[in-house]
């Protein structure tokens, strides 16, 4: 088994690296990485239904879709990500217990009372510290999971908070769980860097791993995956299952909006806007201008640029916010 510790903190790059290692190698691999602040959604989820769009836009937090299914997770420098990539018989590839057990045993070796949970997760005293998911490609499987070490849990809560009544779809929904940080349960406080070293040494001792560093040739392929897939709106948002958005908004300016739209493959196919705005003709123009437009902030702004003459800036911002 090879062990790789990423020197990158960019979520687009690290998720592209997982796909690269899954599809371009035949060896068993243990991959560790930390991402800067980002929201990672499951392959079959509706991105907008999972996030607080206003919070992530204001804080410029990337939203990245991964290869595997499952729920949405928040990554930051206090969250460690582990990934096993192995080959085997197709009927035996998906095995959550197999890949989570070494992590539990490592934590137990540090006198941390970690246990396997019932939802492909790892718990400490009933609180979640690891969510897990997997993806099968031919005769190979990628099993990856999070390890909350000293993550900013308050930011996690705010970034993932959303109104479940706004979106009607058949997408996979996240299940929110009580969470805790591993650091709070360690007998001796250590840094995240020391913890990663301890984890890597444990896996090496158990599996006889060979260390490997990704090279320029590897990154040529990985960077292309970032540019053509993982850092594209089409993959991260447009790939979402079709959905219906319903929203009512009473804005600070006094404007009221009731919005309903149907979106398929990221394209707004039908939209209806009701408002107490005086400029009723502008509201109808708005409906026409964003029909067959991407449900994307930049695309909507471009399509509605000429419509908002006579509206103050606050009203424009409020209406655009109401569309997400």
Q: Could you name the CATH class of the largest domain?
A: Alpha Beta
**Count of discrete alpha- or pi-helical segments spanning 4 or more residues:** 11
Lateral strand order in the biggest sheet? 7-8-9-10-6-2-1-12
Distance from first to last alpha carbon: 45 Å
Briefly note the CATH topology name of the largest domain: BirA Bifunctional Protein, domain 2
List unreliable stretches of 5+ residues: none
Counted beta strands = 15
Report the C-alpha radius of gyration, rounded: 22 Å
Output mean pLDDT. Answer: 89
Please identify the structural class as seen in this structure. alpha+beta
Tally of domains: 2
Overall 3D form: elongated
Short description:
Helix content is 34%, strand content 27%.
Structure overview:
It is a single chain. The chain has about 325 residues and is an alpha+beta fold. It has two domains: about 1-240, BirA Bifunctional Protein, domain 2, CATH 3.30.930.10; about 245-320, Enolase-like, domain 1 (2-Layer Sandwich), CATH 3.30.390. Helix content is about 35%, strand content about 25%. The chain contains eleven helices and 15 strands. It has helices at about 10-25, 45-50, 55-60, 95-110, 155-160, 190-205, 215-230, 235-240, 280-290, 295-305, 315-320; strands at about 1-5, 30-35, 40, 65, 75, 80-85, 115, 120-125, 125-135, 140-150, 165-170, 210, 245-250, 255-265, 265-275. The strands form three sheets. An eight-stranded mixed beta sheet has the order 7-8-9-10-6-2-1-12, with helices on both faces. Strands 11-13-14-15 form a four-stranded antiparallel beta sheet. The longest helix has 16 residues, at about 190-205. The model has no long low-confidence stretch (mean pLDDT about 90).
